[in-house]
Amino acid sequence: MEKYLIIFLFLYFLHTFASDTVNSDYDSFVQCFIENKIPKDQISSILYSPKNSSFTNVLQSHIRNRRFNVSTTPKPSTIITPTAESHVSAAVICSKKLKIQLKIRSGGHDFEGISYVSNQDFAIIDLFNFRTINISLEDQTAWVQSGVSLGELYYRIWEKSNLLGFPAGVCPTVGVGGHFSGGGYGNMLRKYGLSVDHIIDAIIVDAQGRVRDRKAMEEDLFWAIRGGGGGSFGVILAYKIQLVPVPATVTVFRVEKNANDNPVDSVFQYQQVIDKTDNDLFIRVLLQPVTINNTRRVRATFIGMFLGNSSRLLTITGSQFPELGLKTPDCKEMPWIGSVLFWANFDNSSSPTVLLKRTPDSVNFLKRKSDYVKTPIPKSGLEQLFKKLVEIGKVGLVFNSYGGIMSQIPESETPFPHRAGNIFKIQYSANWKEEGEEADKNYINQIRELYNFTEPFVSSNPREAYLNYRDLDIGITDNSRNSYEQGKVYGLKYFKGNFDRLVRVKTSVDPDNVFRNEQSIPVLPSLGRKV
C-alpha cells in the first residue's frame, strides 16, 4: 500500500509541477507583452493559457493530422493569435527572452505537426488572423497575408478577373504561410513553376523582432524564405506575388485504368512523355490498391489539367500519349476557377464560395513521404511496384509530372533545387481513421516498407525529398551543438547544393537559433549560439 501511495504522490507532484510551469510560462508572456507596450486589453484577446475555455478550440481548429490531436500529444503552454505586427514582434522578443520555443502556424497542414507540436517547452503563434488580400489589376500583383488559405486566395483572384490565376496547391484549406515558403506547387507547375518563383516581396519579423520588407532585409534572406522554409528564419507575415495569366477556357479530365485496361502500359508510356509534352499540360497519376470482383488490383487514375481547350488537348494526347485513351467525353471545359473546384473534389454544382471555407469536412490520421524519379521505371519494375502495392494494401502513390519550365529554372535560383532532370515527383500517401498506437504503427510501417521498396527507382546521393511533404523519417535535429551535422542529413535531401547557403543565411540572421524546429536550418557550429 505504501508503494502505491508513493507512486500516487510522485505523479501528483509531477502533474502539479507541469501545470505550474505552464501557468508560469503564460504569466511570463503576459508580463513580457506588457513590457513591450502591448495594451492589456489586447493581450487578453490574443494570448491563451490552457486554463482559458477557448484554448482547446483554438489549438485544435487548425490541426490537420489526427496523429497529433490525441490526449498524449504535447500541448503548448501559450497560444498567441496576433492581430497586428507589434503582437508578432512581442511574441518573438518574449520567446527569445524566456527561452521558450516558438512554433509558427498558418494553416496547420504540416504533415508531421512541426508547426504546433514539440517535445520541449513551447508556445504557438497562430497567424489565422492575418488574412488580408490586396489585389492590383494594374500590375497583376497581390499582397497576401500568411494566414490566408489557398481557397480564399483563388476566390479573391476570381472576383477580380477570370483571366488571372496563381500557381499553387490544389487543397483549398492549406495556409499560404508554410506553403509558399516551402516551395508551393500545383497543377500549373509545368507552365509557371512554383509559388516561390512568383514571390516578389515579403514582410518578415526577424529574430530581433524587427518588421522588414525586401528592401530592409538582406537579399540572401529574401532568397532563403522562397523555398527554404520560412520557419527557420522568422515569422513571415505577408507575401507579394505576381499573378499569372490563364486562358478563358481550361480543360480537366479524369481517366481510370483498371486491370483490364493495361494500367502498367499506360503508366510506362506516361513516364516517356510527360516531362517533354506541351507545357500547358499537367497530369497527376494516382496508384491505389482496390478490390474489383473480389480480387485486389491496382487502379491507375490519370487526372489532368490543360491550359487550353479540349480540341488542342486531344491532338496532343492522341499523338504523344495514345495509351491514355483520352476521348472527348472525358474532357470538361471550364473557366480556371472551375478547375480549382474540380481539383479540390467539389461537385459540378458547387459555387466558388465554397473555397472560402477554411476547415476540411473531415480530418484523418496521415503519413506522407516523397521521392523524385529521374529515369523511367522499367515495365518490369512497374509490375513489381503494382504487386507490392497490392501486398501492402493500404498505401497509395501519387505521381506529379515535372518538366516544362521547371527544367529551365536553375537549381540555385531559389532554395528549392528539384528542377531539371526530374520526370515526376512521388508522394507516398497513407490515410486512416482507426485510433490508437497500433493503427498508427501499422500504417506508418506500411508506407516505410513501400518507400524502401522503391529505392532502386528514385534519385540517389542524395535521395531527394520535398520540404512541404514534411517527413521526419529522413532526419531530425535536437538543435544542439551538433545540429549542423544532424541538419545536413535531411538538409541535403530537401535542398541539395543550396543547403550550405541556407546555413550561412541562418547563421547571419538568427545566430541564437530563435527559430528552430525538428527540421530547421542549423547555424554554423563555430558561429551559432544555442538558445
List keywords for this structure.
5-stranded antiparallel β-sheet; 20% strand; single chain; Uridine Diphospho-n-acetylenolpyruvylglucosamine Reductase, domain 3; alpha+beta; disordered N terminus; Uridine Diphospho-n-acetylenolpyruvylglucosamine Reductase, domain 2; 531 residues
Short synopsis of the structure:
The protein is 33% helix and 20% strand.
Please explain how this structure is put together.
Its EC number is 1.3.3.8. This is Tetrahydroberberine oxidase. Pfam families: BBE, FAD_binding_4. The protein is globular and about 70 Å long. It folds into three domains: 24-126, Uridine Diphospho-n-acetylenolpyruvylglucosamine Reductase, domain 2 (2-Layer Sandwich); 133-245, Uridine Diphospho-n-acetylenolpyruvylglucosamine Reductase, domain 3; 250-334 and 364-457, Vanillyl-alcohol Oxidase, Chain A, domain 3 (3-Layer(aba) Sandwich). The protein is 33% helix and 20% strand. It has helices spanning 2-35, 40-46, 55-60, 85-98, 150-160, 176-181, 189-192, 219-224, 263-273, 310-320, 336-343, 379-392, 437-453, 483-495, 499-509, and strands at residues 47-48, 78-80, 101-105, 122-126, 133-136, 141-145, 164-165, 199-205, 211-212, 235-242, 244-245, 250-257, 281-292, 295-306, 331-334, 365-373, 396-401, 424-432. Strands 15-12-14-13-17-18-16 form a seven-stranded antiparallel β-sheet. It is of the alpha+beta class. It is built from 15 helices and 18 strands.
List the SSEs and their pairings.
Blueprint: H1 2-35, H2 40-46, E1 47-48, H3 55-60, E2 78-80, H4 85-98, E3 101-105, E4 122-126, E5 133-136, E6 141-145, H5 150-160, E7 164-165, H6 176-181, H7 189-192, E8 199-205, E9 211-212, H8 219-224, E10 235-242, E11 244-245, E12 250-257, H9 263-273, E13 281-292, E14 295-306, H10 310-320, E15 331-334, H11 336-343, E16 365-373, H12 379-392, E17 396-401, E18 424-432, H13 437-453, H14 483-495, H15 499-509
